[in-house]
């Protein structure tokens, strides 16, 4: 039931990172050192966003269903998905630019697909493990 929320949150973060990365690429020359710095920065921001969004949705799930374990599962999966999502938004266009390809051509759909697949893997994989 929470899958659309989890996917939407992760997609929003990844597309925002993608947009900022494409803007940064237009501003100057490509440098791997700057790309790695941006990747580390976005990982930290993603972790903060993930814990706060996951906490909020987890709290709603706990209030709604009255089950702390369900809330904890939702919190951790959203936190993990939103922490990884901006990494895709930075990594793909940066890799394409490093390979001297146009990152604007297909970055959006590919980043969203990668984010969705990873998010579903986290969410459903965890559920399958917990539910046995």
Features:
132 residues; mainly alpha; Tetracycline Repressor, domain 2
Structural overview:
87% of the residues lie in helices and 0% in strands. It is an all-alpha fold and 132 residues long. The protein has a single domain, classed as Tetracycline Repressor, domain 2 (Orthogonal Bundle), CATH 1.10.357.20. It starts with a helix and ends with a helix.
Fold blueprint:
Layout: H1 3-27, H2 32-65, H3 68-98, H4 107-131
Task: Write a short abstract of this structure.
87% of the residues lie in helices and 0% in strands. The chain is mainly alpha-helical and 132 residues long.
Characterize the overall form: elongated
- What is the alpha-carbon Rg in Å? 16 Å
CATH architecture: Orthogonal Bundle
Taking the sheet with the most strands, its summary is: none
- How many helical stretches? 4
Order of helices and strands: HHHH
Q: What count of structural domains? A: 1
Question: Which class in CATH terms?
Answer: Mainly Alpha
Fill in the CATH topology: Tetracycline Repressor, domain 2
What percent of the residues sit in helical stretches (DSSP H or I)?
over 70%
Count of individual beta strands: 0
Mean pLDDT: 86
The helix/strand class is mainly alpha
Beta-strand level of the residues, as a percent range? under 5%
């Amino acid at each position: 039931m929470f899958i659309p929320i989890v996917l939407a949150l992760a997609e929003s973060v990844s597309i925002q990172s993608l947009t900022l990365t494409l803007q940064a690429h237009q501003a100057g020359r490509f440098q791997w050192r700057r790309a790695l710095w941006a990747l580390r920065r976005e990982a930290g921001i993603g972790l903060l966003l993930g814990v706060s969004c996951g906490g909020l949705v987890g709290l709603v799930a706990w209030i709604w269903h009255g089950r702390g374990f369900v809330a904890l599962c939702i919190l951790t999966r959203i936190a993990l998905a939103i922490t990884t999502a901006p990494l895709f938004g930075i990594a793909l266009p940066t890799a394409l630019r490093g390979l001297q390809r146009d990152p604007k051509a297909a970055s959006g759909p590919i980043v969203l697909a990668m984010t969705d697949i990873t998010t579903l893997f986290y969410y459903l994989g965890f559920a399958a493990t917990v539910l046995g």
